[in-house]
Amino acid sequence: MFKSFFPSPKWFFWSFVLWSLLCVLTWFFYGEQLGQYLSFGGLFGYDYSIPLPVAESSEVKEAAVNPGAGFWFYQYMFYCYALFVGVWMFISPQKWARWSILGTALIIFVTWFQVHLDVLINDWFGNFYDSIQQALAKPNSITAGDYYGQLLTFGQIALVAVTLSVFTRFFVSHWIFRWRTAMNDYYTGLWSRVRHIEGASQRVQEDTMRFSSIMESLGVSLVDSVMTLIAFLPILWALSAHVKALPVVGEVAHALVWVALIWSVLGTGLLALVGIRLPGLEFKNQRVEAAYRKELVYGEDNVNRASPPVLKDLFTDVRKNYFRLYFNYLYFNVARYSYLQVGVLVPYIALGPTIIAGGFTLGVMQQILRAFGRVEGSFQYLVNSWTTIVELLSIYKRLKAFEFAIANQPLPSIEQVPELKTSEPT
Prior knowledge:
By secondary structure, the chain is mainly α. The protein is 76% helix and 0% strand. α4 (144-189) runs antiparallel to α6 (200-239) and α7 (255-274) runs antiparallel to α9 (308-356).
């Protein structure tokens, strides 16, 4: 699945994780200082200057605006990506390298930029709702130009975000299809080793397609969750200064971060426990569906196959497994939807004492709620994607059988279930 497309998959992904961590830490500790030596912003009118001291504000501490430093930040990101891509393109120039290495880096960079736009929108919400609160409290305290100007600012950011999302989705779709092509070429090239596995044709044609389709949504959303967490966690950390106490618990430093973390961990653990049987049932579902489909295909060319009694038995197996799956999803969805509905109230409960005490403005409250939602959503990646992950695990198990067959290893026990009853050809 991965070897067909990515160069040395384990080394590739682990090196990416470690390199990303190193780049993030370097930026937080030394990145801004490096700008005075490595920035080319002066060539474009963005002269780099040492970042000004942090200015005190009655609300939060915000760094003074420094266009040169902002331009340097984008250069730093480019250097990090270019170095990683360059090294891997040099040491592993395989057939799919342009898509698997350069394409992956481009998707991750664009995802990061989309998160950056979301941060800008979060800041806009704070300013906009503060203006609304000011206008409602004191009529005519803001002008029509101020009001519509802020709407125009949002429109500009939204236009960039929408345009980028459209082109990103287009590129990701092509990237995923190249991955499917790589898997298809790899498995069909070794067809003699895998053709004996139950439903081999379906696994090559359908499972590779479903695997790539799920990875298109699940993989990108995972990267987005990580990027969002990196971007919004410091924001929520700073905004937590407005929340002096939590209900029942009392005063807790950076309370909102801990509330988001604890609530998300509880939900993830709950759903992992409740849905523990689902991957196996999804896998068995694919087996009985494949057996039923296979007999129907044989029946197209052989009048002695796909007899009504045999088809009835095979469809009975399909029915039984689906009903087991429905029952397990019943209590899984009770837990899932109950958790998500209660979660809507969690930030309001946490902010209760501060709201009652009038501890912040409406704009700051909107910023807190959006930042809390982004951080909570990132922590809840498994919760929000659990049903898709279950389906992916089922497909992964089916394709993993190919890996065992290619390596001349015994198939997993789940693959060694006795063959389902079928009619015999004559």
